[in-house]
Amino acid sequence: MKYILSSFLQLLYCGLLLLAIPDSAILFFIISLVMSVVAGNNIFNYIKKPFNICFFDFFATSILLAYALSTLTSQFMIYSLKSVDVAHYFHLGQVSLSIALAGVAFISATLIALSRLLPTPVQLPSFSKQQMNEGLFVILFVALSSIYCVMTGLMAFQGLVFADAENSSISPFASMVSFALAPAGVLAIFMASSRFEVSLLHRWYLYALASILWLITFTQGRRLLIYLALLYLIFYAFDAGGRFLWRRKLFFSVVLGCTAYFGIKLFFAFRVAGWESPGAQDAIQLLHSAINILSNPLKYDYDYLLSETSIERPFVIKYFSQIIEKTTFEKWLYGEAFIATVLISIPSVLIGPKKFLIDEELINPRIGLPVIDEANTILTTGFADFGLFGMIVYPIIVMLMLKCLIILVRKSGIRWLDYFVQFGVLFLLLNVENSMSAYWTFIRNALIILVIVLALKLFIGVIYIRKTIFT
């Protein structure tokens, strides 16, 4: 309670200070530093005691990482390289930036308060031998399916899961595999920890599968690679009593950090390869070009391009502040952006071809911004629809829906799926820079898997009963 009140009050004070003095670049920097420290402290606690993770609190931390920490690092880089503050560099108003960061502080404080009022903790009970075998089979199936999707081009570079070259039809199978990549990987690394009685052969088998799933995830996005590495770190190295194993954790952290660093460089080389060959999205086809770029960085200005994208891409609060600056009461979308995110997650076979606009294509023309790829999040959707009210309420609605999903899956008694959904929710919450439709799609996919698994168990149960009766 003391920790929750402390974080809640710190963030509340940060938001109020920003609103009181919104035109101060120095205060903006100090507040982003304080909020980053809060997020960093939370992450340390998660790594030390994952059993104490609450989903509401975790979402608050993810929002702070996406907005406050990225803002802090951008300020350091821009001032050290360009000697100007971020407002001048991005041609933004300092007031709108301060209001945006204040909004981040308020929604994070609200979610932390709800973590006490509506506790939804991560539950990590043990596996039975049969449940362990089921988990091993599911992880193997996801790994093999993901390899198949990459090799056939169904799951291409940066998360494209289209079934045809015209990008007009989404592959349902590839979509489900993409959904399963992260939770299956975290489940593998969790089962490989010392918490479970696993044979040495099975342990290395799980390490290998976790590595394969991580490698495939890295073709889908740089941020996803970092988020998956963080979850691997959180849920690895605990003994049977749930005690933290520092030596294993530290060694694993070093290996994971080095691998993530080179993985990020390789991913950006993939992106440069895509720029060099417009239209090429197959990860396998781009691999040769990416390796060539890393081998000849001067030829492609690789280091310069990486430096530039490292300055501008992480500054996700830019788009949020632009929406705040451009949006007025008369320009609110009044739920239109919310409805579009729900409709886009419904299969086309149920509602027909999806011709409607979503996210930047829907919002930007209404408020006078060009239609380009932006760092849209649930906060930008909420503010575009209903201003400050939507920005605070939308994350709460999503969290309540995810809470209901977790409760439903737990009641099914399918242990591997319980873990699967919990880890999937954590990965989803980390990936803040995403369309609001991602949350509805996750819930849809989880429900589909739940129905399929329950149907299979029922079918197998009926066959077993009939076999018992007639023998």
Topology:
Layout: H1 2-20, H2 25-48, H3 55-82, H4 86-89, H5 94-117, H6 129-152, H7 172-191, H8 200-218, H9 222-234, H10 246-276, H11 283-295, H12 302-312, H13 317-326, H14 336-344, H15 348-351, H16 360-367, H17 378-412, H18 415-430, H19 437-469
Helix pairs in contact: 1-2, 1-5, 2-3, 2-5, 3-5, 3-18, 5-13, 5-17, 6-7, 6-8, 7-8, 7-18, 8-9, 9-10, 9-18, 10-11, 13-17, 14-19, 17-18, 17-19, 18-19
Could you explain how this protein is built, in words?
By secondary structure, the chain is mostly helical. It folds into three domains: 1-122; 129-312, no CATH class; 316-471, no CATH class. It has 19 helices and no strands. The protein has helices at residues 2-20, 25-48, 55-82, 86-89, 94-117, 129-152, 172-191, 200-218, 222-234, 246-276, 283-295, 302-312, 317-326, 336-344, 348-351, 360-367, 378-412, 415-430, 437-469. Helix 17 (378-412) packs antiparallel against helix 18 (415-430). The longest helix is centred in the C-terminal third of the chain and has 35 residues, at 378-412. It is globular. It starts with a helix and ends with a helix. The model has no long low-confidence stretch (mean pLDDT 82).
| Tally of helical segments | 19
Mean of residue pLDDT values? 82
How far apart lie the N and C ends? 60 Å
Would you count the extended β strands for me? 0
Calculate Rg over CA atoms.
Answer: 23 Å
Query: Tell me, what's the shape?
Result: globular
Helix content percent band: over 70%
Structural category: mainly alpha
Identify low-pLDDT runs: none
Q: Note the beta-strand portion.
A: under 5%
Order of helices and strands: HHHHHHHHHHHHHHHHHHH
Number of individual domains: 3
Main beta-sheet strand count, sense and barrel state: none
